[in-house]
Amino acid sequence: MSKPIIQVVDLKKDYTNEEVITSVLRGVSFVINPGEFVAIMGPSGSGKSTLMHILGLLDRATVGDYLLKGGNVKDLTDEALAETRLRTIGFIFQAFNLLPRQSALENVKLPLVYNREVNITARAAKAQAALEAVGLGHRLNFLANQLSGGEKQRVAIARALVNDPDIIFADEPTGNLDSKSGEAVMEILEKLNDSGKTIILVTHEKDTAEHAKRVIKIRDGMLAGDEMVENRRLAKDGLQK
Fold first, then answer.
1. In the chain, what are the domains?
2. Bridge-based pairing state of the strands 214-219 and 222-228
3. Residues 131, 162 contacting (CB under 8 angstroms)
4. Given a cut of 80, is residue 139 above it in pLDDT?
5. What is the reported pLDDT for 227?
6. How far is Cα 208 from Cα 211, in angstroms, rounded to an integer?
7. Which of 43, 73, 216, 232 has the most CB atoms lying inside 10 A of its own CB?
8. Cβ partners under 8 Å of residue 81, min gap 6
9. Which bin fits 87, alpha (ψ -120 to 50), beta or left (φ > 0)?
10. How far is the CA of 66 from the CAs of 13, 22, 112, 225, in angstroms?
């Protein structure tokens, strides 16, 4: 058995506003192994986005332990957290978060600016390869604001891939897309998972979660369910054979 890539133990998160404490996460524990495709589901206000921000090293837990690739992140400085986030994690957001007046290529190159192991001349080649991997080799020099919603999200996926992270977090990746574009994005994520990437998907949409192989449910800041599911694509392929 491989070691967990993510392990959280009794994770809690409180926010304090004018001396009023709001508990968002109330003691969450689970393990995610390398190569899993996990959907984190829950209604609005359940704590799922806060959980993703902690797992993605964008926020810290108030109490509890988070072990990433075996190391406890509470022991990391802010600088070390940023370095770990750069090398280990890729993010895909609902709102794309692209620079609208920069080309697809320039948007994908952006994370490489902070990677000291990739020199300037190599950045364009790596960014182009990432865009070609998501089927956008013909859109390299299009400005982000010239692309369709589905194309923007594929640029965002390429940007998440360009540093070859171990884990990809997708926060409501189909929320701003029509059903056809959303399906295409989820198929890309499935193929990335097939290639060995660990995918953690945050969604409130059942149809989107069905692309995962495991569903963790969060309700009122607590674990409400954790089960393996039959991947919809695999089930459909089985019926066609």
1. 6-240 (3.40.50.300)
2. antiparallel
3. no
4. yes
5. 94
6. 6
7. 216
8. 57, 73
9. alpha
10. 12, 21, 27, 19
pLDDT at 119: 79
Q: What's the whole-number mean pLDDT along residues 5-15?
A: 96
Mean pLDDT of the 172-176 span: 90
- What's the angle, vertex CA 55, arms to CA 53 and CA 60, rounded to 5? 65
To the question of pTM greater than 0.70 for the whole model, the response is: yes
Highest mean pLDDT among 8-12, 78-82, 84-88: 8-12
Compute the average pLDDT of residues 179-187.
Answer: 92
- State the pairing for strand pair 222-228/20-32: unpaired
Identify the bridge partners of residue 78 per DSSP, sorted by sequence position.
Answer: none
Residue-level pLDDT at 231: 58
Rounded to 5 degrees, what angle do the CA atoms 7, 86, 197 make? 55
d(CA 65, CA 195) in angstroms, rounded, equals 29
